[in-house]
Design goal:
single chain
Amino acid sequence: VTKMCNLGEMIAKENMEKGQKKKNIEHVRNLMNELPCSMQRAMDILKLTTYERKEIEKYFQA
């Protein structure tokens, strides 16, 4: 039963992280469009962590 609870918590956490990642990408894109600034500057404005920056850079490279 404990393993099932941990699995549920893990899935919920992953879903929250995916949602936050999508929001961060959207915010970066909006800043780039509205303020004509670079992706790096947009991420600076949003004060994203190193991990978040790497994830967003992967998205924009694809």
